[in-house]
Design goal:
Largest sheet: none
Structural class: mainly alpha
Distance between the termini: 44 Å
Helix content: over 70%
Order of helices and strands: HHHHHHHHHH
Number of helices: 10
């Protein structure tokens, strides 16, 4: 059961995200300030920073959801092959990323943030948690040692992320992004097929 404080916290976070998404769509990511997002959400800048350490963090809130999707997809796969389960899990994240219009609209902002070296510090922890959770899920389901699964996960995630960033920088459509990331996924696991 959620207590009142946690419910208010979630609502405030959602209000900030909603305001940020709308303002990014209207003005662009670069032209939108934290002060404008906070004012639009009806919170102080201090409250904004209690929820998000930086404006850039707003672009990567989906990563925690991706972790859940990947672990569920890996568990739902009936394949005894670790690489097949990794492929299934990462394909589920690709599907989600390219079907979500907000993620697609702001893909170029994420790519530019990455190219400028402004990735939020929290992203490292989120991506690490995703990789660890997926590795453990696949290892547990297939009885493969995590040391054998981890390179599959790292290779697949890295290849797909790089393909997605380049596609976003080039202004690719969601269909084109899906194709490029799927191609990267397919080829990243060739050496692991078993």
């Amino acid at each position: 059961m959620t207590n009142g404080h946690e419910l208010r916290r979630r609502r405030t976070r959602e209000a900030i995200l909603k305001s940020a998404t709308r303002l990014f769509d209207e003005r662009g990511f670069t032209a939108t300030t934290v002060a404008e997002i906070a004012a639009d959400a009806g919170v102080s800048q201090r409250t904004f920073f209690l929820h998000f350490p930086s404006k850039e963090d707003l672009l990567f809130t989906h990563v925690d959801t991706f972790r859940e999707v990947a672990v569920q997809a890996a568990a739902a796969s009936s394949s005894p092959s670790p690489s097949a389960r990794v492929k299934h899990a990462v394909a589920a994240m690709i599907d989600m990323a390219t079907a979500d219009s907000t993620l697609v609209r702001h893909a170029a902002d994420r790519a530019q943030t990455a190219s400028l070296g402004r990735l939020p510090r929290s992203l490292v922890a989120q991506l690490s948690a995703l990789a660890i959770a997926l590795t453990e899920s696949v290892a547990d389901a297939t009885d493969a040692p995590p040391s054998k699964v981890a390179p599959m996960v790292g290779g697949a995630l890295g290849a797909v992320q790089a393909a997605g960033l380049i596609a976003a920088e080039e202004g690719a459509s969601s269909e084109e992004m899906h194709q490029r990331m799927s191609y990267a996924l397919e080829h990243s696991l060739v050496g692991f097929a078993h």
